[in-house]
Amino acid sequence: MANKMTFVFGRMNPMTIGHEVVLNKAAAVGGRNYRIYVSKSQDRKKNPLDYKQKVKYLKKIFPAHAKHIMDSPARTAIDVAVQVASEGYTDLIMIAGSDRVGEFQKLLDEYNGVKGKRHGEYKFDSIKVISAGERDPDASGASGMSASKMRGAAADDDFDLFKTGLPDKFKDTADAKELFRTVQKAMGVKSFKEWLELEEKPEDSTAFLFAKIASNTIWKKEYEAAKKMYLDFLKKYKKKGIALHKAASLYKHVTDRGLQNYLNK
Fold this sequence. Notes:
Elements: E1 4-10, H1 17-30, E2 34-38, H2 51-61, H3 77-86, E3 91-96, H4 101-111, E4 126-131, H5 147-155, H6 159-162, H7 168-171, H8 174-187, H9 192-198, H10 206-214, H11 220-237, H12 240-248, H13 256-264
Parallel strand pairs: 1-2, 1-3, 3-4
Helix pairs in contact: 9-12, 10-13, 11-12
């Protein structure tokens, strides 16, 4: 068994051609001995896809790396190090974006050989964190692509922009559109069609009651502010569903359906 293991760990939410650069670097450095781990963090804003969804789409989008994508309990890079060490590997290489190299090198070095920690222990003869390449957020192509740009495109209901972050062989497939809708759903973004459906039976929802309550409580200020933001967003995006979601998301007690009913009262 080779004593060296190369790995990638990231949120990849969603995965992009920028991530493909990192995976390709891991394959080039590690040969057959490389692994791809994804985090389990999830929230609507920055981590819309859950762990299982990420593993599923990573395998579809990057089939050349599919057998190296791990289904593992590891939640952090430290967890990965502990797991790899327990398997008998003596040297560890991590591939990361250029802006994270120093951070991960310091972290992994700090706990190398340290015992008694809750996360477990690991001891490697060498640990190296290697850059996958420089990122330029203003560039076109892989070096300028980011998951945040793709989440922004999903929020704006802009599939054409979203798919520019996907590999050419995948971007025009049904799976690409499915990924787009999955990200939107996880983010709570409603399409124009779904927005219209809100009008059909507003009285059936708890949000409708919240909207009614808002007219006589302290939340009215939030709904009034959200209403103003909705009108501003509507001028900018020209789509009611997008404007509604963006306005509602700015205020703690305002929901999409609640704001829709407030606008209609």
